[in-house]
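Quick log. Single chain, no ligands specified.
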Amino acid sequence: MAEPIPPSAPQEPAQPRWPLILGALTGGFFLVALGLGLGWYLFYRPVVNVAVQLPPPPAPPAPAGPDAAQIKALEDQIEKAKAANRDVEAQIAALKERLRADVCTARNPSGAPPAPGAPSGGQKI
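-> predicted structure:
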């Protein structure tokens, strides 16, 4: 038979490894749980924003009445527009009268001479 190995030094009893393995597994489990919880918190939790909407501001008070200066300015503008319209209508009437009088015919190809008070329409062709 084989000879027994003489003990050279006293050996310490072997420490069990299961506490280290159990600690590593527990720590890993907690790290994974922490990562999942943080991921859920950041990405999947319902976001609730509670905002109170303020009531609309009150409407500004209505003016007490129309401004006399603005009314006067608007009436002056209306009078100027009426005067301009009268001038344009008079010019239209004069041109219509000139068209009735200045018609080219076979007997008079150049048409009748313009009325003395009518504005000239340019060159005749």
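The chain has a mean pLDDT of 81.
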